[in-house]
Write a structure and sequence with these properties.
Layout: E1 2-6, H1 11-23, E2 27-32, E3 52-56, H2 62-72, E4 76-79, H3 86-91, H4 94-116, H5 120-125, E5 127-133, H6 158-177, E6 181-186, E7 188-190, H7 199-208, E8 213-216, E9 222-227, H8 228-241, E10 247-250, E11 255-257, H9 258-272, E12 287-290, H10 305-311, H11 319-332, H12 334-341, H13 344-357
Parallel strand pairs: 1-2, 1-4, 2-3, 4-5, 5-6, 6-10, 7-9, 8-12
Antiparallel strand pairs: 9-11
Helix pairs in contact: 1-8, 2-4, 4-6, 7-9, 9-11
Length: 358
């Protein structure tokens, strides 16, 4: 198979591509605009493969998206390209509306026109897999319930509302145009190559530099944590074995309060990086509670029994094993972190692009 992965230079997208190139015989076309969160350095281990190709394209640019379909002729689409940081969506919702809603519409239409031109066998085999989030379901609060595939949508932030909108578009293109689509909704991911604005890498890197560890409110928010490489395996399982029209929730069955996640990071760093900055006696002393963000959901929890039952997928990592791997990765890849933090990964990319254009 040849799979078109949108957003393949992002955190989850790059994990998907690394999995496909390393663990399967399939080929990948990575379509990515390369915004601030897109980092081709996350793909250095597989980018030299003959089965990998890259297209720097904005999913909102329909002529370019159509060109990619016609030139590469994929057998499936895995759509991960999205603006995904809730805080950024509160500060500036417009980009989230444009990328997550308009971009998904453009991609659906380009995929539909391409799909209509396929022969019968390839048309039957084609799949459009839309990767979404559990945040579309809203806040479970302290109900004790879990998100299932039929949970009503109740998004709370501009980010989750834009993702809910894109989910609805995908379902409409299945119902109205018979485009063979699938949707997955995942819980919070963590692991290697995670952009440092997110909770776990931010805590790791701030702690190593002796900076405050900012925690919203009192850190009572509960999330279900999923190791990114387990998620990548699940996504590949769905695109290759999932049933058209179905939705699959993907979670790690690891409900943790944010404050407990932060203390887990601190405990692992005490063990794995005991030489602290001079001003720090214990990493946990750096925990700083800050004003909660607007509309902050209290609890998310995924019931992943459907994908376990129907597609025989199970996470390989526990929260403890995944967190240890994650902290070790950041300790062993300080140069990758530095280049992201100081922006040099983008400046060099822009310099190369300008040189090629000249």
């Amino acid at each position: 198979m040849k799979i078109l992965v949108t957003g393949g230079a992002g955190f989850i997208g790059s994990a998907v591509i690394r999995h496909i190139i390393s663990e399967t015989a399939d080929s990948v076309v990575n379509l990515d605009k390369l915004t601030y969160a897109g980092n081709l350095e996350s793909l250095v281990d597989v980018s030299a493969s003959e089965r990998y190709s890259f297209e720097q394209v904005d999913i909102c640019d329909r002529p370019e998206v159509e060109r990619v379909f016609l030139e590469h002729r994929p057998d499936a689409v895995m759509h991960l390209a999205a603006e995904s940081h809730v805080d950024r969506s509160i500060d500036g919702p417009a980009e989230f509306i444009q990328t997550n809603i308009v971009g998904t519409y453009v991609l659906l239409e380009a995929a539909r026109q391409y799909w209509l031109g396929l022969d019968d066998a390839r048309k039957r085999a084609f799949r459009f897999h839309h990767i979404s989030t559990d945040e579309v379901y809203g806040d479970l609060e302290d109900s004790g319930a879990m998100f299932v595939e039929s949970t009503p949508y109740a998004p709370s932030s501009p980010y989750s509302a834009s993702k809910a909108s894109s989910d609805h578009l995908v379902r409409a293109w299945l119902r109205t145009f018979a485009l063979p689509t699938l949707i997955t909704n995942c819980s919070n991911n963590y692991g290697p190559y995670h952009f440092p604005e997110k909770l776990i890498p931010l805590m790791i890197l701030n702690a190593l530099e002796g900076k405050p560890l900012p925690v919203y409110g009192h850190g009572e928010q509960i999330r279900d944590w999923l190791y990114v490489e387990d998620h990548a395996r699940a996504l590949y399982t769905v695109v290759t074995g999932g049933k058209v029209g179905e939705t699959y929730n993907i979670g790690g069955l690891n409900e943790k309060r944010n404050i407990d996640v932060v203390h887990c990071v601190c405990d692992l760093l005490e063990e794995l990086a005991p030489e602290k900055p001079a001003s720090v006696s214990a990493y946990s002393d750096l925990v700083t509670f800050v004003e909660d963000r607007p509309g902050h959901d209290l609890r998310y929890a995924i019931d992943a029994s459907k994908i376990r039952r129907d597609l025989d997928w199970n996470p390989l990592e526990t929260f403890e094993s995944g967190m240890r791997k994650t902290v070790l990765w950041y300790l062993d890849n300080r140069e990758w972190c530095r280049r992201v933090q100081d922006g040099s990964y983008r400046r060099e990319r822009l310099g190369i692009r300008k040189k090629e254009t000249a």
